[in-house]
Design brief:
Largest sheet: 4 strands, mixed
Number of helices: 4
Helix content: 10-25%
Shape: globular
Strand content: 5-15%
Radius of gyration: 18 Å
Order of helices and strands: EEEHHEEHEEEH
Oligomer: single chain
Distance between the termini: 30 Å
Bound molecules: flavin-adenine dinucleotide
Structural class: alpha+beta
Number of strands: 8
Length: 157
């Protein structure tokens, strides 16, 4: 981020709510686009958003309809769990965090939380769960690495 070779660094309009200041809107530039500079957090999104879009007329975008496409694009590194797939281009692994269980327990004490089953990406994202990252062997796994550089796909994507 903040490198004009890899980040468009768009300027926002002056924002009256922050005394007219101009913000920076980061956006990936070059192969991989945003996936080359983003925070590598992997999440499928919230079931209710997809279902709301489908209900508003976006045919084919309900959670149940998009879920197979998520699975096809994923190649989860780690112990296989329910609702995960291993054939796709988008590699994701559980984040290396210091004491994730302590953080989870602290979050769970605070309020509504997802089940601690830590599926690769829960359908309902309110609450506390372990994060996953688009990484391979501890390194960023951008869309360009996954789809352009990685060679033939083992799976159906
Ligand atoms: C700083 C930052 C952090 C983020 N963190 C996360 C995160 O942790 N987890 C997450 O899921 N998402 C995150 N995102 C969002 C995620 O990266 C984007 O939603 C995703 O990359 C969008 O993919 P896309 O293919 O739709 O578009 P983009 O990745 O934006 O790709 C568009 C590509 O087209 C190119 N382009 C644009 N205009 C032209 C043109 N006229 N001619 C030729 N090429 C052009 C761009 O340079 C870019 O390479 C983050 C984004 C940013 C910027």
């Amino acid at each position: 981020m903040h490198n004009p070779a890899t980040d468009w660094m768009f300027a926002t309009e002056p924002d009256p709510s922050i005394n007219g200041r101009v913000g920076m809107w980061n956006a990936g530039r070059g192969l991989g686009g945003g996936s080359a500079i983003n925070g590598m957090v992997y999440i499928r999104g919230d079931r209710h958003d997809y279902d709301d879009w489908a209900a508003a007329g976006c045919t084919g975008w309900s959670w149940d309809e998009v879920l197979p496409y998520f699975k096809r694009s994923e190649d989860w590194q780690g112990r296989r769990r329910r609702r995960t797939a291993r054939a796709g281009r988008c590699r994701s692994r559980r984040c290396h965090q210091a004491r994730p269980d302590r953080r989870l327990r602290a979050g769970l004490r605070r309020g509504p939380a997802c089940a601690r089953s830590t599926t690769i990406a829960p359908a309902d994202v309110d609450g506390v769960f372990v994060n996953y990252a688009t990484q391979r062997n501890g390194e960023r796994w951008s869309a360009a690495r996954g789809y352009l550089e990685a060679g033939p796909c083992r799976g159906r994507t």
